[in-house]
Amino acid sequence: MIATSLQGVVKAYDPISGDGTIICDSNLNEYELSRSALHGSVFRMLRQGQRVVFDVDDESLATRLRMGSEVDMGTPGFPQQHPGDSQHPQGGEPAA
Q: Which tens digits make up the pLDDT trace of 18-61?
């Protein structure tokens, strides 16, 4: 089961090993990246301080990283425009 999308900031990322940590905006928890966190994403690497939208898997790892706009991040006053599209943070189901 995958949780609701969360917003956060990249704390650290090693492009060689693929290891990284995201700090969640809402609860300040740190989430390690899953091995598949960037698969199917527009990201090829991450930089410290970069804002991302992500899900948390059953092992409490950050997965399904993607960029988000005000609409995608669910900012009040911005209507959701892609509710069924899995490539958008607030829409659809992750690819199998």
A: 899 999 988 899 999 999 888 877 777 888 988 899 999 999 99
Nearest to 47 by CA among 72, 29, 20, 79: 20
Give me 92's structure tokens: 């659809």
Q: What is the rounded CA–CA span in Å between residue 55 and residue 38? A: 12
Classify 52 as helix, strand or coil: strand
pLDDT digits (tens, 9 = 90+) for 44-56: 788 898 889 999 9
What domains appear along the chain, each with residue ranges and CATH number? 6-66 (2.40.50.140)
User: Rounded to whole angstroms, how far apart are CA atoms 26 and 93?
Assistant: 22
DSSP helix/strand/coil, 24: strand
DSSP character at residue 34: P
- Give the dihedral sign, CA 17/18/19/20: positive
